[in-house]
Amino acid sequence: MPSLSALRAFEATARLGSVTAAANELSVTHGAVSRQLRSLEEHFGVALFTKAGRGLQLTSHGERLQHGVGEAFLRLRDSCAQLKRDVEAAPFILACPGSLLARWLIPRLDQLHRALPELKLHVVASESEATPGRDEVSATLTFAEPPWPADLEVIELAAEHIGAVVSPQLAARFDPQRPATLFDAKLLHTASRPQAWPHWARAHALDSARLDRALAEGQGFDHLYYLIEAAVAGLGVAIAPRLLVEDELRQGRLIAPWGFVETPARLCLWLSPTDNRGYRARLIEWLERELNDTLSSR
C-alpha cells in the first residue's frame, strides 16, 4: 500500500483537477502535493495524470485508482463526521463525591445550566476517583492530593482547607484559644476522609495518641454529608472542608472555633486529553468563578 498522505493528495487533485486547489484544501504547499503525486506514480510505475490545458486530466490508470480512492475517502469523511456528531451529542458525564455533589454542586446546577445551555450535563456520585476517558465519565471533580495521573489533564481549582466544626450550642463548651478542649466532646469522623483529623491535629500540635483514643470512642459515618449533618445536630465535633460547610458557617448553624488549615489536597477537575468538546474551557471558567465567589464570601 502507498502512504495514506499520498493517496489523500491524489484524491484531492483528482476531485479538484488542480494541484494548486488540492494544496489549498489540504493546507500544504504546491510542491508537497506534487511530490506526493510523483511518489504515487513511482509506486505504481504508471502515469496517473496528463496535462489538459492549465489543469490536469486523469489517465485510464488514474481513473481506476480514483474510483476506489474517491469512494474510500468519502466513506472516511462520512464516518468521521458521524462520530463527531455522536460525540458532540453525547452527554457530558461529571463524576464527583456525593457530599460535594449534594452540598456545593447541586445548589448551583441551575446557574450552570443557564451559563452553559449547550452542556448536556449528567452528574453521577462517585466516592472513588473515576477516570475520565474510562469508567464511562467525561470528567471528575474531586478533592485529591498529587501526584496527578499522568494520562489525564488536571485543572487545580482551589486549595483544600479543613477545620473542626461544631454547633453553636456545643461551641460554648470549648476554649477558642485551646484546641485540646475539643477532646471534651465526641469526635465525629468518616472513613472517606481518614487523613483529615490527623492532619488538622498536627497543625495544632495535639497529642496523636490522645486523638487516636478520641476517634476510637467517637462516632463514625459512611459519608461526609452525614458527618456534617451530625455536627449541625450537635452530636459532636466534626472535621470538614471549609467549602462544604461555608453555607452553615455563614448562617450560623456551625462554628469553627479554631479555624481552618490548608492541606496538600486540591479540588481538581480531571479531564481526558482526548475529549476536546468546545465547552470544556467555559466549564472550567464557570467552576473557577463559582469557587472564587464561594470562598471570597468569607
Descriptive keywords:
298 residues, alpha/beta, Arc Repressor Mutant, subunit A, D-Maltodextrin-Binding Protein, domain 2, 3 domains, 8-stranded mixed beta sheet, two-stranded antiparallel ribbon, 12 helices, 47% helix, rod-shaped
Structure notes:
This protein has 298 residues and is of the alpha/beta class. It folds into three domains: 4-89, Arc Repressor Mutant, subunit A (Orthogonal Bundle); 92-141 and 274-296, no CATH class; 160-265, D-Maltodextrin-Binding Protein, domain 2, CATH 3.40.190. Helices cover 47% and strands 20% of the residues. The protein is built from twelve helices and ten strands. It has helices at 4-16, 19-26, 30-44, 60-89, 98-105, 109-115, 168-171, 196-203, 208-217, 224-232, 242-251, 280-296; strands spanning 49-52, 55-58, 92-96, 121-125, 139-144, 153-165, 187-190, 219-221, 237-241, 260-271. Strands 4-3-5-10-6-9-7-8 form an eight-stranded mixed sheet, with helices on both faces. It has a two-stranded antiparallel ribbon with strand order 1-2. β1 and β2 (55-58) form a beta hairpin. It is rod-shaped, with a radius of gyration of 30 Å. The termini are far apart. The model has no long low-confidence stretch (mean pLDDT 89). Belongs to the LysR transcriptional regulatory family. Residues 2-59 form the HTH lysR-type domain. This is LysR family transcriptional regulator.
The CATH architecture of the largest domain would be 3-Layer(aba) Sandwich
Number of domains: 3
Rounded radius of gyration (Å) = 30 Å
Binned strand content: 15-25%
Task: Give me the secondary-structure category.
Answer: alpha/beta
Helix content: 40-55%
Full CATH superfamily name of the largest domain: Periplasmic binding protein-like II
**Main sheet?**
8 strands, mixed
Protein name: LysR family transcriptional regulator
Keywords: DNA-binding, Transcription, Transcription regulation
Organism: Billgrantia sulfidoxydans
Family: Belongs to the LysR transcriptional regulatory family.
